[in-house]
């Protein structure tokens, strides 16, 4: 990784869900370099979503330090963390989390409402949203459709466009291809990578699906990142 500062870094991070002594994360050292495409593989229940929640700051570490784009997220108040997340991280959820009755266009520009910094990077939000839709292979008339009326594969592209708009430095994707067949997965990933490249965004994806590995710069197993065996209740 040389002297380039990582976009994401976890050092000596520990987390345990309250009342869940049987599960814990312990991450001695994990980092992602700018523009890397990293796939984090792990079985169901291995803690992938917990790790992403820690990185996004929706749950807070018991000990250790997580930095995103150079900022220690524990140093921020809850409100600052929400703003910081909206500014710095584009999220693609497993279930996409689109507003089903809002238009595709309104879904895509939604993150810009929460952060002036990200909004400032998009002089013409509606035009940018339309361009992202086109580049991600959505039909032209899809932008005005209600998001909930689209197919699963199309909704996934809308979720990707929403994550990419305003070029956040870090894109985090939680099993975004689990509902798709292999050919559609590959197409989606190559479109996502091309758009992430254009935005200069780093991509961290978690999945249980080892078949995705060939598409990524680096593939890591959850068991190499976290050492749950060392935890005590
Ligand atoms: N909100 C929560 N409260 C308490 N325990 C939780 C919570 N969320 C997750 N856990 C527990 O943390 C452990 C890891 O779950 P997590 O969802 O992080 O794994 P995962 O690898 O993302 O699984 P999957 O691939 O099935 O989504 C599990 O034992 C789970 O029950």
From TrEMBL:
The keyword Translocase does not apply. The keyword Nucleotide-binding applies. InterPro entries: AAA+_ATPase, ABC_transporter-like_ATP-bd, ABC_transpr_LolD-like, MacB-like_ATP-bd, Sigma_54_int_dom_ATP-bd_1. Pfam families: ABC_tran. GO terms for molecular function: ATP binding; ATP hydrolysis activity; transmembrane transporter activity. Keywords: ATP-binding, Nucleotide-binding, Transport. One of its GO terms (cellular component) is plasma membrane. Residues 8-233 form the ABC transporter domain. CDD domains: ABC_MJ0796_LolCDE_FtsE. This is ABC transporter ATP-binding protein. It comes from Roseobacter insulae. The lineage of its organism: Bacteria, Pseudomonadati, Pseudomonadota, Alphaproteobacteria, Rhodobacterales.
């Amino acid at each position: 990784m040389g002297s380039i500062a990582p976009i994401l870094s976890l050092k000596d991070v520990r987390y345990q869900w309250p009342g869940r002594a049987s599960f814990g994360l312990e991450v001695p050292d994990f980092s992602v370099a700018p523009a890397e495409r990293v796939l984090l593989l792990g079985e169901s229940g291995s803690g992938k979503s917990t790790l992403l929640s820690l990185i996004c700051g929706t749950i807070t570490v018991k000990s250790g330090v997580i930095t995103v784009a150079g900022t220690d997220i524990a140093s921020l108040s809850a409100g600052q963390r929400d703003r910081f997340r909206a500014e710095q991280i584009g999220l693609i959820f497993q279930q996409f989390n689109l507003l089903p009755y809002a238009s595709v266009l309104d879904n895509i520009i939604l993150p810009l409402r929460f952060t002036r910094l990200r909004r400032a990077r998009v002089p013409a939000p509606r035009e940018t949203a339309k361009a992202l839709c086109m580049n991600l292979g959505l039909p032209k008339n899809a932008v005005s459709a209600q998001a909930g009326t689209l197919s699963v594969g199309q909704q996934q592209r809308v979720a990707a466009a929403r994550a990419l708009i305003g070029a956040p430095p870090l894109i985090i994707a939680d099993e975004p291809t689990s509902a798709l067949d292999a050919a559609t997965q590959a197409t989606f990933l190559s479109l996502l990578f091309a758009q992430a490249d254009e935005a200069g965004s780093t991509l961290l994806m978690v999945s249980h699906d080892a078949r995705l590995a060939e598409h990524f710069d680096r593939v890591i197993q959850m068991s190499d990142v976290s050492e749950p065996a060392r935890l005590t209740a």
